[in-house]
Write a sequence for this structure.
């Protein structure tokens, strides 16, 4: 009898643990009952913003990436700096290049008006990235939700957790592996550079004084480098100067990025380096040939990236204002 009772208790405990784990997992349709209009409200705000400024789509995709790679997808990238702390958004990796904060603020304000204290800022960022991909011509995808917001944001984290544009393929592979992403997913997600723009400072090292033997990066197509030099003069200090990352279709989520790399027109070292490794070069060629396959892979990789070290259950909080932690904590 004692044996049967012990087995029964063990079974009940196992079911309890299973339910606890299930509770902590992200779920598609997480807000179906608590705030049924949540995803629609976010998408409407993103749509209006992209209509007024198509470049915002790229900014919101990049925001999700920069959020997830530091402390997981917890909206830490949205927190403002305080007198005693410099937050992620004010690090050189994010300022002045990261944009779209006002889109998240507007969506959050509307959600708080109809569903106060329900929808996390982290989920809004994930929804907005998905909507941006779709509005740019990519594939839409279901976003598992249930993330909660973190309370810590340190500019110093960006130096070790975000890949700079100077990384080579081995450094990129290692960094993405630390986040649980494969090399193939790294190449796939790099395709986000198909939309958006870059400040000159992110690639000017390839144009001037590249090495002791070459003033210009020899892996950069000279006919592409020439207009880049005109747009980004040597010694320029104007932080407002930007160029499209994929000149042929800067507002469309297509495989032009991979076509450019095969033509030695990858803007960053971290783009062109994908041809220096046999496996990643093969993936670049496959993606360049099959836009639909890449779009599918990209959607899947975005979903996986969106689950990096998420806070769920009772961890973290649901911020009332995405820029500051709740005052009652």
């Amino acid at each position: 009898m004692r044996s049967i009772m012990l087995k029964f208790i063990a079974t009940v405990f196992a079911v309890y643990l299973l339910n606890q784990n299930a509770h902590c997992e992200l779920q598609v349709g997480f807000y179906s009952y608590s705030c049924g209009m949540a995803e629609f409200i976010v998408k409407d705000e993103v749509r209006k913003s992209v209509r007024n400024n198509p470049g915002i789509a790229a900014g919101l995709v990049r925001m999700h990436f920069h959020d997830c790679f530091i402390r997981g997808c917890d909206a830490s990238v949205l927190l403002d700096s305080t007198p005693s702390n410099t937050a992620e958004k004010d690090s050189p990796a994010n300022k002045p290049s990261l944009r779209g904060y006002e889109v998240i603020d507007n969506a959050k304000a509307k959600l708080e008006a109809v569903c106060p204290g329900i929808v996390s800022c982290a989920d809004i960022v994930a929804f907005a990235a998905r909507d941006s991909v779709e509005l740019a011509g990519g594939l839409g995808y279901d976003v598992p939700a249930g993330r909660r917001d973190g309370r810590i944001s340190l500019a110093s984290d960006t130096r070790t957790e975000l890949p700079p544009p100077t990384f080579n393929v081995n450094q990129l592979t290692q960094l993405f592996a630390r986040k649980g992403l494969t090399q193939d997913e790294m190449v796939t997600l790099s395709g986000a550079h198909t939309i958006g723009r870059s400040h000159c400072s992110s690639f000017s090292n390839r144009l001037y004084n590249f090495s002791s033997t070459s003033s210009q990066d020899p892996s950069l197509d000279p006919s592409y480098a020439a207009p880049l030099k005109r747009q980004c003069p040597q010694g320029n200090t104007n932080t407002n100067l930007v160029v499209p990352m994929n000149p042929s279709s800067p507002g469309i989520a297509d495989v032009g990025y991979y076509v450019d790399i095969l033509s030695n027109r990858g803007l960053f070292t971290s783009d062109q380096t994908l041809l220096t490794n046999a496996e990643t070069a093969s993936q670049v060629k496959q993606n360049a040939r099959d836009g639909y396959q890449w779009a599918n892979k990209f959607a899947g990789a975005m979903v996986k990236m969106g689950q990096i070290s998420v806070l769920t259950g009772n961890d973290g909080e649901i911020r009332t204002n995405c820029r500051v932690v709740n005052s009652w904590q």
Notes: Residues 4-23 have pLDDT under 50 and may be disordered. The first helix runs from residue 2 to 24. The longest strand covers residues 197-199. The CA atoms of residues 96 and 239 lie 8 Å apart.
